[in-house]
Structure to design on (684 residues):
């Protein structure tokens, strides 16, 4: 059972307005592993997480979590399924009207009937795991970005989910908190036997913790494999991304008419 | 010409679509069975939209009552009818001014704050993360605010009326020297509990629903950028004011149209 | 969830104040009394012309308000106006059968109301009875017309 993937994405198509974001994406997320989904900004990585979480509905294709088609579920069944998932948002998305303690306690209060003493134990345990037990009285507005993300992580694991989705966990962090987060994600995954999906464009960090890597660009999976294999892959677009070259098959310029034509056409303002 | 017609059509379709979304939104959020915690969430919002709006509503009520008495006196005294001052102040407040002015103030004070608050929650992904935790933000965030507004505005309207009639008393009786007995007596003889106070409360309940609905919907439906939030906040105040004044005419025609 | 005592107290006071305000409006402003649910005493009176009388107008006796007008409608049998009066229940069985009703005006431009004057008949009016002897509203235009035609004949 443990060798069947927890999450299967089959031939996913999604478009927003006229722009198509995914044109047939296939992913298999193995259980108990950290899978990194990488790609340049604007390739819809956050959208992918929202599709997996059932917040967006794809134009075509399926997302199966443990065999259940996320988008065929009723609203109620979807909310039940979401209890088995945790999601860490880019901004942390802590509830600004309640303090750190209550933020972590929130999923427990909503989904369980545990007595207050037990909730307290769980919350302190989770906060201890992210090293912020001392900050439990603070309001979200008083936290630094890195701390907010760690609190959000504690909240995401409060219900001991099977699957955690990380949305750009390393973005905008100083090297220290980046290191802390990298370590936390890895440790939590090992300790709790979680399945993690890390969406990121921070190549070094993502590669250092991932067991398996998918690279997405232009709405398709460009390459996938274990981190060691990925480096030697000779697809020019992947190599441009992994080595961080500014221009190449993934163009530096936003699509536009030829520069010379553009500059020689006065009056055409737009 | 065709292009303009098309644009008009598209505008109409968009408006209808928004209206439909807003209706669905209202139904989905107002029929949530309140949980053990729902009561407390509602209480917090009562504090936020009710207690904190009390000061501005009461102060406005006092001044409006005083101005009504002063203006009314100068007109009534020409006909030797200044005994009818209490009646005039009470009826104008109970039937029209209290429900309408309290609703307008409420839209400005509490409605815009609700829009901005929910909009900011949306912009900082709090609503999405709540959904991912498995909690429906319509029930958790929107429903307590909707119900709090629905209860708070009628109470504020009562406060407005009481303070306004008190302000009229101060100016009319204490200052201008209208006989106290005729101030209250004429008032009691002409104000009907069901027709005047009751209808005023019905108006206020309708305004409460509409203003809070507009405020939370604008917050929930906005584009989550700083510009989007500021636009939605403005829209809340503008739409609420227009709808309150328009509905007021409609309700007045229904309630008091047959009396004259 | 953290509970704040002052906030709970504030909301409690706010709601209490709102309810007290409504009670104040009811008692002090609309003069509501709790004897209202008592059954009222209903009489009818037919007038040739009600003038500007409106539903909810006062019904007085010796200048004291004793009831209200509840309905005014055209009586299609006689083509006059049937006015339904609701009087205080304590007057039930007290008014003589020859009580008269007149439509009066308070002041020159004031509102119109119904004034009752008692007669001396030992028999009394009971619930739903009609007052026979009525005096219509004074219509100012008719009055002036009469006055002018009297002047002309003199």
């Amino acid at each position: 059972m443990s060798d069947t993937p927890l999450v299967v994405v089959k031939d996913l198509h999604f478009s927003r307005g006229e722009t198509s974001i995914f044109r047939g994406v296939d992913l298999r997320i193995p259980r108990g592993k950290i899978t990194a989904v990488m790609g340049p900004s604007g390739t819809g990585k956050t959208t992918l997480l929202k599709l997996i979480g059932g917040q967006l509905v794809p134009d075509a294709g399926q997302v199966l979590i443990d065999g259940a088609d996320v988008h065929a579920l009723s609203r109620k069944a979807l909310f039940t399924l979401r209890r088995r998932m945790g999601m860490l948002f880019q901004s942390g998305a802590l509830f600004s009207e309640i303090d750190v303690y209550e933020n972590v306690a929130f999923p427990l209060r909503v989904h369980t009937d545990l007595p207050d003493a037990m909730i307290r134990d769980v919350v302190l345990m989770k906060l201890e795991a992210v090293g912020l037990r001392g900050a439990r009285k603070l309001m979200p507005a008083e936290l630094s970005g890195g701390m907010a993300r760690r609190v959000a992580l504690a909240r995401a694991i409060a219900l001991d989910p099977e699957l955690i989705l990380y949305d750009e966990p390393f973005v905008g962090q100083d090297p220290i908190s980046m290191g802390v987060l990298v370590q936390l994600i890895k440790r939590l995954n090992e300790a709790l036997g979680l399945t993690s999906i890390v969406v990121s464009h921070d190549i070094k960090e993502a590669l250092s913790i991932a067991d398996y890597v998918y690279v997405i660009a232009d709405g398709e999976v460009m390459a996938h494999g274990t981190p060691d294999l990925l480096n030697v892959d000779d697809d020019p677009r992947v190599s441009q991304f992994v080595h961080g070259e500014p221009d190449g098959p993934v163009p530096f310029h936003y699509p536009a008419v030829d520069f010379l034509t553009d500059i020689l056409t006065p009056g055409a303002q737009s | 010409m065709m292009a303009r017609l098309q644009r008009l059509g598209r505008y109409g379709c968009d408006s209808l679509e928004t209206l439909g979304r807003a209706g669905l939104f209202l139904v989905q959020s107002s029929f949530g069975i309140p949980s053990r915690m729902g009561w407390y969430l509602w209480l917090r919002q009562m504090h936020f939209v009710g207690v904190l709006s009390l000061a501005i509503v009461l102060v406005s009520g006092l001044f409006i009552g005083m101005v009504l008495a002063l203006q009314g006196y100068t007109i009534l005294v020409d006909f030797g009818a200044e005994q009818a001052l209490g009646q005039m102040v009470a009826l104008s407040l109970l039937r029209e001014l209290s429900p309408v002015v309290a609703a307008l103030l409420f839209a400005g004070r509490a409605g815009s704050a609700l829009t901005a608050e929910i909009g900011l929650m949306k912009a900082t992904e709090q609503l999405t993360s709540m959904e991912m935790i498995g909690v429906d933000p319509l029930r958790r965030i929107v429903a307590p605010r909707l119900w709090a507004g629905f209860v708070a505005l009628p109470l504020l309207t009562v406060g407005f009326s009481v303070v306004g009639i008190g302000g009229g008393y101060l100016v009319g009786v204490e200052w201008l020297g209208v006989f106290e007995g005729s101030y209250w007596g004429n008032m009691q003889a002409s104000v009907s509990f069901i027709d005047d106070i009751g209808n005023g409360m019905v108006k206020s309940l309708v305004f409460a629903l509409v203003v809070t609905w507009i405020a939370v919907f604008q917050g929930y439906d906005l584009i989550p950028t700083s510009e989007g939030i500021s636009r939605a906040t403005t829209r809340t105040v503008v739409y609420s004011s227009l709808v309150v004044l328009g509905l007021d005419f409609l309700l007045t025609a229904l309630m008091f149209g047959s009396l004259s | 969830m953290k509970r704040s005592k002052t906030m709970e107290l504030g909301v409690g006071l706010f709601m209490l104040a709102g309810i007290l305000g409504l009670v104040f409006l009811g008692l002090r402003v609309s003069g509501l009394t709790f004897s209202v649910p008592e059954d009222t005493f209903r009489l009818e009176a037919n007038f040739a012309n009600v003038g500007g009388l409106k539903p909810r107008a006062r019904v007085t006796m010796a200048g004291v308000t004793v009831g209200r007008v509840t309905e005014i409608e055209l009586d299609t049998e006689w083509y006059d106006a049937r006015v339904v009066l609701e009087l205080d229940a304590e007057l039930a069985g007290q008014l003589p059968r020859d009580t008269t009703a007149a439509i009066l005006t308070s002041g020159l431009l004031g509102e119109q109301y119904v004034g009752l004057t008692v007669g001396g008949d030992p028999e009394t009016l009971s619930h739903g009875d009609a007052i026979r002897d009525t005096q219509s509203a004074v219509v100012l235009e008719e009055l002036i017309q009469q006055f002018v035609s009297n002047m002309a004949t003199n």
Observations:
- Chain C has a mean pLDDT of 82.
- Residues 1-34 of chain C form one domain.
